[in-house]
Amino acid sequence: MTEFVRTEIRGRIGFITLTRPKALNALSHDMIRAIAAALDRWRDDCAVLGVVLQGEGEKGLCAGGDIRYFHEAVGAGRTDIMDFFSDEYRLNYAIATYPKPYIALMDGVVMGGGMGISQAAALRIVTEATRMAMPETAIGLFPDVGGGYFLANLAGHLGEYLGTTGIVFGAVDACEIGLADVVLPRASLPALCELLANGQWQDAQAVLDAARDFVRESLPPAGLAPGKLAPLRDAIDHHFGQPDMPAVLRSLKHEARCEYSGWAQETEELLRAKRSPLMVCVTLEQVRRARKLSLADELREEWLMMRSVFNLDGRMGAEGVEGIRALVVDKDHKPRWQHASIEAVTRADVARFFDGERRGADNPLRDLGL
């Protein structure tokens, strides 16, 4: 147990609870290590048949990584910032390969790093309060924690759209596009946890079956917001299937269909005015490359990409530091991006994020999946 993570065994279930609600349960390095340590302890413990991940507080499971720490670490000239990402990405992979049912209660805000500790779960439960996104391009980063992998595996060009824009969506959309499995009323989450903790389970499959049955037999949440992505699928695939980001913007600008014109204009304005030009272009390339990669290879790639973001390879400017400063630290909402526009980003600017040796001796994730 660390200050912001409570781990306990109740019955035959290991519970991991994030207890930093004032910071929307944002993941610190210590929290990442604590979660990983609990999973390691329970992996071969025959008394534990399954794991439940949940967040404390009304606002949600986890809003992402502790981005203030990134800003402070780079400002202080610390080079150990990459240890954070090494441990976080190892945790993401450990969850994806965990031998016991890992059930994620994706209630409230689930973004960035919160998606990373949820998307590989055996059962991903959302509620009427779920607000999901990979919003990294707004702060000069890219969708990491395996984001390239799970976005790339969505249908059509949804991955490019969600990754570059970072838009927020709810439970219905999450289930329809494959980023969640089932919807459960928020008020029913404690009852589900009690059922799992008190059950006389014979094996791991019985735990997972019981959780699925509980959700299936529950009443649907009241006031559940309808999905917004399904009606846009044709437009998303058309525009975000263009060869590069300038072409995406041109396509959006010339959308003539009445039913999509308002959305197209809003999306173009969002990309131009509120996202890092460089990281929007990098994210488009990341998602498309990830379609040919395993999760392990994508996490290795993301580690090298993140090293470039924070200027630890001697070549790139700290785009992420500036984005965090503008939106979270100083809150002036006027980031001074490296490029004045998406059109100003060159192919060489993007290529620098992908030209490293993927399995080199300096990559601490070189052994994943081997």
From TrEMBL:
Q: Which UniProt keywords apply?
A: Hydrolase
Q: Which InterPro entries match?
A: ClpP/crotonase-like_dom_sf, ECH_dom, HIBYL-CoA-H
A GO term, aspect molecular function: 3-hydroxyisobutyryl-CoA hydrolase activity
List this protein's GO terms for biological process.
L-valine catabolic process
Residue span, Enoyl-CoA hydratase/isomerase domain: 13-354
Question: Does the keyword field hold Phosphoprotein?
Answer: no
What name appears for this protein in its UniProt entry? Answer: 3-hydroxyisobutyryl-CoA hydrolase
What is the taxonomic lineage of the source species? Bacteria, Pseudomonadati, Pseudomonadota, Betaproteobacteria, Burkholderiales
